[in-house]
Amino acid sequence: MGKPLHARTVLVLAPHPDDEVLGCGGTLLHYTKSDADITIIYLTDGRYGIDAGDIQTRRTEAESIKEILPTVKQLFWNFPDCALYENMLNIQLALKQVITELQPDLILSPWLFDRHPDHEATSLILTEALKEITEEVCISLYEIMLPLIANHTVNISAYADEKQMLIDKYESQVTRYNLKAINTRLNHYRAELFRRSNVKLAESFFVIEKSQFIELVDKLFCKN
Length: 224
Known about the structure:
7 strands, 7-stranded mixed beta sheet
């Protein structure tokens, strides 16, 4: 507890632009300092998170995080917001190809019970893609707006200012949803559980091995 999981190649699934910095921005900053190879896939265009469905603004905001995370690679798949369920097969096939090519040690994905349907769909898509992958990979589910059942927590106190700067890059979301306040309170709550005065902010995860993740999702969503 306290340090990120060891990983040299990290794949991050972000259903919407901003999920990646809210859920694991501090942890990604840790990984960049250790020269890990990080790839973020933005599954949707995020059109319903902004007035008039301004897709370009959301992409521009996402691209701007490279000012703070310059080595991170970004893939924009641009499926319609709130339509991951309708495009599951296409995304599953594309994700399988990326995982095969990258062979990540770690995949970061949203908590499967997060309140947005695209976050839930992401877990199902990942599960189906992993069923066709023979290599082992660790899955780490991150929290965005709601606390998850945590079995791993990362101290991000050293990156507090940089994480706030990452969140600020998503100006359209910060002004509309007060994301900074919500996320900071969640990170403070996680830090309090350390019971150490030097831990001010923390991010929590549910970490699980590939085979167990597949079994869990299949049982929870009645796939067996």
